[in-house]
Design brief:
The protein is an alpha/beta fold. Strand 16 and strand 17 (334-335) form a beta hairpin. 28% of the residues lie in helices and 20% in strands. The strands form four sheets. A six-stranded mixed β-sheet has the order 2-15-14-18-16-17, with helices on both faces. The protein has a five-stranded parallel β-sheet with strand order 1-12-11-10-13, with helices on both faces.
Length: 440
């Protein structure tokens, strides 16, 4: 095992790290009086509730599932009674069914919770499905789909993403500190059952304690490499970290598996190890709560379905100058319009931003400085894409490789004219989808 300092010059931007909670050990939040568990917390098809109003439930009990393979089951994070099954708009604007459970404080564990028997690759993939794992890095891609990809035998490299490049967020860092043995054990499980030869754990160089911790555990393993990455946003983006760790370029239209690489978030790997040992599915999440608008920033283990308002109260409540709540980081996070919104599986942070942390967003004319082009990790031309969208020029959008945009926000961040370039790219993607549907 080697410690490698990558010197590939990647495009992107340097951000203030603001990792205020890095050395704060994770606290466990008390079980709230009520949770609201969405039936869609993943990319793909939503689940159908398996319980009824008035029915008792226990921790780890499966309460939602879909016949569509591109979906993952949902489990209860608490014990108590189902008091409502209702539709609510999630932070992404989708109308999603929620199972509302009034807790009893007992946290009784369901009889369904037992370690899976894994004797083959097929058993392993089935266990990943039953665990309810959706990528914990933010995208929420179903774990069993990624690990059960049709050409998975072509994959020879595993990249474990522990870069955590957004400001404030330290939940993955705490996984490397508090659950490093689980991370290594999970890596070895994936390596064994998918017959993967080489493993790379990518960690930004602003986390030396995490790097040293993983190095110490892995000093006798020659097939698992800890890669010390430059602290440069968006180092943790899938295609960026693949290139940084392996030198492999994933071209437009291809998946990492097509190029022989599998990427997993470090918290996903650690969770898999715990699930295989205990049988407890994904029912709680570690989040970073931070920002100038919250009184007591910290890392918290929280039952999935907990109200964001209850979580903020556990962190001392918000200050009078709190202006905006984000689910996620300041670069790619989504503004929360309602504090009744629940914590979900791929939620790794809640940021309460104060008045002075909100930038002036008044747009002015483009001055053709080219900063957005230099900042883009995918080497796109954001201003040209903006003009193509404004004129609804579908061909220009395709020619400009719009599909490569990962919505990292680097272009918007560096723009002196404060143009909403990243936002326009997402609107442009929706425009192309609608144009494609009309043609059909």
């Amino acid at each position: 095992m080697a410690r490698n300092i990558q010197i590939k010059r990647l495009r992107g931007i340097h951000l203030s790290h603001r990792k205020h909670t890095a050395e704060r050990a994770t606290e466990t939040m008390p079980v709230p009086a009520k949770v609201s568990i969405p039936m869609q917390q993943h990319m793909g098809a939503p689940c159908t509730p398996m319980v009824r109003v008035g029915e008792p439930v226990k921790v780890g009990q499966k309460i939602g599932e879909s016949e569509n393979n591109f979906s993952v089951p949902i489990h209860s994070s608490v014990s108590g009674t189902v008091v409502e099954i209702t539709d609510r708009v999630d932070v992404g604007g989708r109308l999603v069914k929620n199972v509302v459970i009034e807790t009893d404080g007992k946290q009784e564990i369901s009889e369904e919770v037992k370690p899976p028997v894994v004797d083959s690759k097929e058993d392993f993939i089935k266990a990943v499905y039953e665990s309810g794992l959706a990528g914990l890095g933010g995208a929420g891609f179903p774990g069993h789909i990624k690990l059960g990809y049709k050409d998975i035998d072509r994959v020879t490299k595993l990249v474990v993403n522990a870069a955590e490049c957004e400001p404030y967020i330290t939940s993955d860092y705490r996984e490397c500190i508090e659950n490093a043995d689980d991370v290594v054990d999970g890596i070895k499980m994936v390596k064994k059952w998918l017959n993967i030869k080489d493993v790379y754990i990518g960690v930004e160089d602003n986390k030396p304690i995490a790097i040293d911790n993983m190095m110490k555990i892995l000093e006798d393993d020659p097939d698992i490499n800890v890669i010390e990455l430059e602290s440069r946003y968006p180092q943790g983006a899938e295609k960026v970290i693949i290139y940084a760790c392996t030198g492999i370029v994933v071209e437009d239209g291809k998946l990492p598996a097509d190029c022989g690489v599998l990427v997993m978030n470090v918290s996903s790997v650690g969770f898999l190890s715990r699930y295989i040992k205990t049988g407890m599915p994904l029912v709680r999440k570690r989040l970073t709560v931070d920002g100038g608008g919250v009184n007591d920033p910290k890392n918290v283990f929280v039952p999935i379905g907990t109200r964001i308002g209850d979580l903020l109260d556990f962190c001392g409540g918000v200050k009078e100058n709190c202006r905006k709540i984000l689910m996620g980081g300041p670069m790619m996070g989504i503004a929360v319009y309602d504090l009744d919104a629940p914590v979900i599986k791929n939620n790794n942070a809640i940021l309460a931003l104060s008045e002075d942390q909100i930038a002036d967003t008044k747009e002015t004319a483009c001055i053709r400085c080219g900063r957005c082009i230099y900042a883009c990790p995918m080497r796109l031309m954001p201003r040209a894409l903006e003009m193509a969208y404004d004129t609804r020029n579908a061909e220009a959008l395709k020619k400009g490789n719009l599909s490569l945009c990962m919505n990292c926000g680097s272009c918007t961040f560096v723009c002196p004219a404060k143009r909403n370039l990243a936002q326009k790219n997402q609107l442009a993607k929706a425009f192309l989808r609608q144009a494609g549907q009309k043609k059909k």
